[in-house]
Amino acid sequence: MSVTHDARIQVRSPASSAQRRVARGWPDLNNPAAWIVAVILLIMPLIANGFFLIEIFATTLMLGTIALSLMFLAGYGGMVSLMQLTIAGFCAYMVAVFGVSGNANISLGWPWWLAVPMALTLATIFGTLGGALAVRTEGIYTIMITLAIGAAFYYFTNQNWAIFNGHTGINNVATPHFWGVDWRSDIPFYYVVLAVAALCYFAVDYISCAPFGLALQGVRDNPRRMAALGFNVNAHRVAAYAVASFIAGLAGVLQVWNYRQISPGSVSVGACIDILIIAIVGGITRPIGPYIGALVFVLLRTFALDFLVKIGLDGNRFRLLIGLGFLAIVFWSSDGVIGLWQRWRQSHRPQSDRPGGGRGHG
Amino acid sequence: MDSVAQRLSAVGAGAALELRGVTRLFGALAALTDVTITVRPGERRAVLGSNGAGKTTLFNCITGDFPPTSGTIRFFGEDVTHFPPYERIRRGLRRTYQISALFPGLTVQDNVYLACRGVSRGRFSFLRPTQNDALMHAADGLVQAVHLTAVKDQRVAELAHGQQRQLEIALALAGAPRFVLFDEPAAGLSPTERAELVEILTSLPAHIGYIIIEHDMDVALRVVESVTMMHNGRIFKEGLPEEIQSDPEVQELYLGGGHE
């Protein structure tokens, strides 16, 4: 029996395994819960008022998309980057600088369809350069370098008046109007955000089973072996930062359109860490995790204040609730909310029906 | 344009692997001292020696996991001394690890698929493999060759030790290997599994040479045609398996040395 000879001849049923692989990437097609969620998201404008539509659901989708870029790096690549919000913020600033805003002395006044591609390109370059620095290190040093980039950008925007307009930031950023639609009015904007979030979610899910995504998971599990299989490990890591930066940049464009302004407060170190909390609370083993985490975060941030006041506590302590929730989830499930949910499902399932193991790592 | 140096280098092109004066220091410790080895294409050789003799360091220098402190390494005539590991692998060098170095979060199939992808184009492809992907078929064949078809959709973390050792070998045979370094492939295997290992090694196509580090003489001497003995980071003796086995100095040092 020749090993390398066998490798080139037909074996039993190669097509079935390839079919399984193609099908495996789209498990949600057979999952009624996923269809229900999709339908609810699509008809949301019929059931939710403007406040819920934008302040809760659109915000969840935008924060979730930034956290998705972190999930892509951390869950598949094993690289915890704290600069994902900074990249989104950088992209938001670039939209404001190249596009139209109330600060005519700074903004160049390009139409949005030129300003947005420019901003996305620059944000991707920015994130890739940061990644190229970060991949020279591992573990906690990656966290430190990306946190340093985030902190440096925050202080830079505070102090630079020529481009970033210092601590006041850039206000009255113009939003797209075309085909007779104001795309920043609540319902159209909700659908724009939903489309971008869905695109990013499915792209990440798809890439995870493509050679690039598989190799990234290989780099996470064993970089030295990946080099011994012919992969340039650092090039793969930098490419992952480029993909993640583009995703974060897309969310940044949506954010600046949502608030119509961008200022250093939006790119503070605290906000960078919020993204990490969102990703961890939701779970970083699957692309759906960051969106679940973002929903939990946004609901807590929005309603914890009222809740605390109602039970007679100081409403400003809402961060305490977020912190306690974070502690509880990390304590009981290293895999976030999706980990809890998976375990609950497995314990309510007949023994024979249990899978050998899902996607993602343990 | 051919330079003189390139023409001169072609003189040594007859050897699959040629190490000249390779030394590797870890601080003040010399793990390898002035090692010179020439291996023909298709040659199968065992490297023997007690723990700390420098066998695995030798492999790490050849693959580039740790570059040598001094000396040169040629692979099929090409000076690869300063190449990163992945460049050497893409030229047909392969290795296995003494302690299985696999991807526990991925399935058996995906592990082998990655190995096939690593030595071909499209490593950065964003497109999922189609039903007729040649590398998927190649991966299926390798999985079958190391008797892992039954578990190919399981995550590697769930495999038994012996199965992980077999997968380790499959990863090293992906693509078109020209020379393989096996680092104690029989470690921890049952007698049955050892027999399977010997069968896999002896049935490799004749043009694929290898060096095997193996403490089990029954395995090592059945699958090689030449033996290199190492001691304290130096080449101690080279010869045919019978010569090495009957050499009194070798017996003193290695075969009997374990009972001191």
Q: Main attributes?
A:
heterodimer, A: 362 residues, mainly alpha, two-stranded antiparallel ribbon, 2 strands, 1% strand, globular, disordered N terminus, disordered C terminus, B: 260 residues, alpha/beta, four-stranded antiparallel β-sheet
How does this structure look, described?
The complex is a heterodimer of chains A (362) and B (260). Chain A is 67% helix and 1% strand. With 362 residues, chain A is mostly helical. A two-stranded antiparallel sheet of chain A has the order 1-2. In chain A, strand 1 and strand 2 (181-182) form a beta hairpin. In chain A, helix 6 (84-98) packs across helix 12 and helix 7 packs across helix 8. Chain A is globular, with a radius of gyration of 22 Å. With 260 residues, chain B is α/β, with parallel strands linked by helices. Chain B contains ten helices and ten strands. A six-stranded mixed beta sheet of chain B has the order 6-7-8-3-9-10, sandwiched between helices. A four-stranded antiparallel beta sheet of chain B has the order 2-1-4-5, covered by helices on one side. In chain B, strand 7, helix 7 and strand 8 form a beta-alpha-beta unit. The radius of gyration of chain B is 19 Å and the shape is globular. At the A-B interface, helix 1, helix 2, helix 10, helix 11 and helix 12 of A face helix 3, helix 4 and helix 5 of B.
